[in-house]
């Protein structure tokens, strides 16, 4: 296919994992055969609960700037929440680009679907005509939130009953929501209330039918001996069920291929019908009393393939989990993901973090709503690359990838970022992708907490060895670092000097001008010592108004510079008090046998002698 490159956005939800897997494979097949199509799929694991977790999942739909795309496809029958669909329709209209809706109609979109009414009619008609069912119970899909699939399938069921002369009193419709538990709960209610079984349970999808069959069989109800059960979608799980579930087959791979063909035609200005219908086939089988001739070979082949895949998958998952939880930082984690990308079924995988999450592990420092994506993202690779979020990925990565799937990364209600992959994995079909992402999200959050703990411990350690008022080292700091610095000074300079300093008149400052003034004086002395010493010198508040300095022996004028700095402060400070220091100095050579403690004691004595002499001189 020749022509310019088209960039397409595709929105999906892994509501039914097998159907979405078939969808993704159909899309991959299309991009493999159409080299001028760049497909960006935005997928998540949202449900219809619209809770905090759902909001975090659906946030991935807000990621793309649709004005940068040529067209959009929405897998509408998997996006159950109407507000989510409505928001997508609004953004498509705002961007002014063509769009296709898969599954059922959306405003402003061409619809690509199969005839749900006719398909449900076909399987219901078969059960009535071929197996003589006259009393029927129908389990609907969701009939609300604008979910036309549920409505049209119900219509097909009712039409088949009417056309076959089924009396209204012999038909019962139970409003359900597509879930496996809907079928399970229905069977249990039937049994607990000892209700008479109908001739057939007709279910609007396979998930409900499988849940229903399992619960009935647990209570020794034979299928189809006691009751017929049918589904819809012909999932692999339906094909492998016992008995094999009668269902309806729709080629979702082909349907998505048609959706892409239709959209490209719209982009190129060609006329297309407002509705494009795909094919369906009724698949009567064992659960309605029909044979399944290919069952033995099918079961053996699928069991073999699934067993081999799961064995490989769990080995890969164990390896990934171990490496993720051993990672101490994001670089380690990113390296672990890249080493284990086989589990994701892709060649290239990209971890992108919100800039506010990456820059500030402390949530209190985040400057925006933590459910949203930041203005910039950080791609974790060998180096961290920042790029505008609207680009999705930095160049040249984005332009070289024609097929990319984006999934959200979040922890509870706040967004971490997203992950982008260039391929598909069998894990998606078995609902195992979500568990991998959960591992990854927890591992990332653990790293954030590890870093916060490390910083907290550093802060505690800093408080432990530093004086709270002056910021200088304290006695614990002297014990930890003093001897090492003293030895280093002797090695480096051949000698060291220890200054022991005591403030003159500190009691008078406190008594006359308040203890706040005393604190000001202590901080002033600490700043004077810092200004006179080099960065490698050790300065500490020894206790009260006493200070100790360990410096290189070559700074012969250090004491004089300290005293001169005190006088300069007195002239310029504007304080009502004057600073005064008494300083004792001891020098130690490289061959000296005096320990640091000996030198400090000797300097203290010298300082005390100077202070005493000054008092006597007054």
Range of helix content: 40-55%
- CA distance, first residue to last residue: 103 Å
**Structural class computed from helices and strand pairing:** alpha/beta
User: What is the radius of gyration computed over CA atoms, rounded to a whole number of angstroms?
Assistant: 38 Å
Proportion of β residues?
15-25%
Instruction: Count the beta strands.
Output: 21
How would you name the oligomeric state of the polypeptide chains in this document? Answer: single chain
Largest sheet: 11 strands, mixed
Number of helical regions: 19
Number of domains: 3
Mean pLDDT: 90
Q: How would you portray this structure in words?
A:
The structure is a single chain. This protein is of the alpha/beta class and 618 residues long. The chain has helices at 17-33, 52-58, 82-95, 116-131, 148-163, 180-192, 206-218, 236-239, 252-267, 295-326, 330-339, 355-359, 397-400, 433-465, 475-493, 506-513, 515-532, 558-572, 596-617; strands spanning 6-13, 37-44, 71-74, 99-102, 110-114, 136-139, 171-174, 200-203, 228-230, 247-250, 275-278, 280-283, 349-354, 376-380, 384-388, 403-411, 414-421, 495-503, 538-543, 546-552, 581-589. The chain folds into three domains: 6-111 and 308-451, no CATH class; 114-251 and 272-297, Response regulator (Rossmann fold); 466-617, Reverse transcriptase/Diguanylate cyclase domain (Alpha-Beta Plaits), CATH 3.30.70.270. Helix content is 46%, strand content 19%. β6, α5 and β7 (171-174) form a beta-alpha-beta unit. The radius of gyration is 38 Å and the shape is elongated. It starts with 5 loop residues before the first strand and ends with a helix. 42% of the residues are buried. The model has no long low-confidence stretch (mean pLDDT 90).
């Amino acid at each position: 296919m020749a022509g310019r490159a088209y960039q397409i956005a595709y929105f999906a939800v892994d509501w039914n994992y097998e159907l979405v897997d078939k969808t993704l494979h159909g899309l991959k097949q299309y991009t493999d055969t159409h080299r001028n199509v760049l497909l960006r799929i935005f997928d998540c694991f949202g449900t219809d609960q619209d809770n905090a977790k759902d909001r975090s999942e659906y946030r991935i739909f807000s990621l793309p700037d649709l004005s940068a795309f040529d067209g959009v496809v929405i897998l509408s029958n998997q996006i159950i929440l109407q507000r989510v669909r409505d928001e997508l329709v609004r953004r498509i209209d705002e961007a002014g680009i063509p769009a296709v809706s898969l599954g059922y109609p959306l405003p402003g979109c061409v619809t690509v679907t199969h005839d749900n009414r006719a398909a449900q009619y076909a399987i219901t008609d078969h059960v009535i005509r071929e197996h003589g069912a006259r009393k029927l119970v129908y389990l609907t899909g969701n009939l609300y939130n604008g979910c036309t699939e549920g409505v049209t399938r119900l219509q097909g069921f009712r039409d088949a009953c009417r056309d076959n002369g089924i009396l209204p009193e012999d038909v019962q419709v139970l409003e359900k929501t597509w879930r496996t538990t809907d079928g399970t709960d229905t069977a249990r209610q039937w049994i607990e209330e000892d209700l008479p079984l109908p001739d057939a349970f007709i279910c609007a999808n396979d998930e409900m039918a499988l849940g229903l069959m399992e619960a009935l069989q647990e209570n020794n109800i034979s299928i189809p001996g006691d009751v017929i059960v049918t589904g819809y979608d012909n999932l692999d799980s339906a094909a492998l069920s016992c008995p094999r579930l009668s269902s309806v087959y729709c080629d979702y791979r082909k349907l998505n291929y048609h959706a892409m063909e239709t959209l490209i035609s719209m982009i190129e200005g060609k006329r297309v019908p407002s509705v494009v219908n795909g094919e369906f086939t009724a698949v009567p089988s064992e659960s309605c009393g029909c044979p399944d001739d290919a069952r033995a070979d099918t079961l053996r082949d699928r069991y073999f393939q699934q067993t081999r895949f799961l064995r490989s998958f769990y080995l890969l998952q164990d390896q990934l989990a171990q490496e993720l939880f051993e990672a101490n930082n994001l670089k380690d984690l990113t390296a672990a993901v890249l080493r284990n990308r086989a589990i994701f079924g892709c060649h290239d995988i990209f971890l992108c973090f919100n800039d506010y999450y990456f820059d500030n592990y402390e949530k209190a420092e985040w400057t925006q709503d933590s459910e949203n994506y930041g203005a910039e993202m950080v791609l974790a690779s060998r180096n961290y690359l920042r790029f505008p979020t609207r680009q999705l990925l930095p160049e040249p990565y984005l332009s070289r990838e024609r097929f990319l799937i984006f999934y959200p990364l979040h922890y509870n209600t706040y967004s971490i970022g997203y992950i982008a992959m260039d391929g598909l994995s069998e894990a998606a079909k078995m609902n195992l992708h979500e568990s991998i992402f959960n591992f990854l999200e927890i591992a990332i959050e653990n790293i954030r907490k590890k870093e916060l703990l490390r910083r907290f411990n550093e802060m505690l350690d800093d408080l432990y060895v530093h004086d709270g008022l002056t910021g200088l080292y304290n006695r614990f700091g002297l014990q930890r670092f003093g001897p090492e610095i003293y030895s280093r000074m002797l090695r480096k300079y051949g000698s060291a000097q220890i200054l022991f300093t005591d403030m003159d008149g500190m009691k008078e400052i406190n008594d006359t001008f308040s203890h706040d003034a005393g604190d000001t004086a202590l901080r002033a002395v600490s700043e004077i010592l810092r200004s006179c010493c080099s960065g490698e010198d050790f300065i500490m508040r020894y206790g009260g108004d006493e200070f100790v300095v360990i410096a290189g022996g070559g700074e012969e004028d250090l004491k004089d510079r300290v005293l001169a700095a005190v006088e300069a402060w007195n002239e310029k400070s504007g304080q009502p008090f004057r600073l005064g220091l008494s300083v004792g100095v001891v020098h130690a050579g490289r061959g000296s046998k005096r320990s640091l403690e000996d030198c400090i004691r000797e300097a203290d004595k010298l300082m005390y002698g100077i202070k005493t002499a000054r008092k006597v001189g007054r």
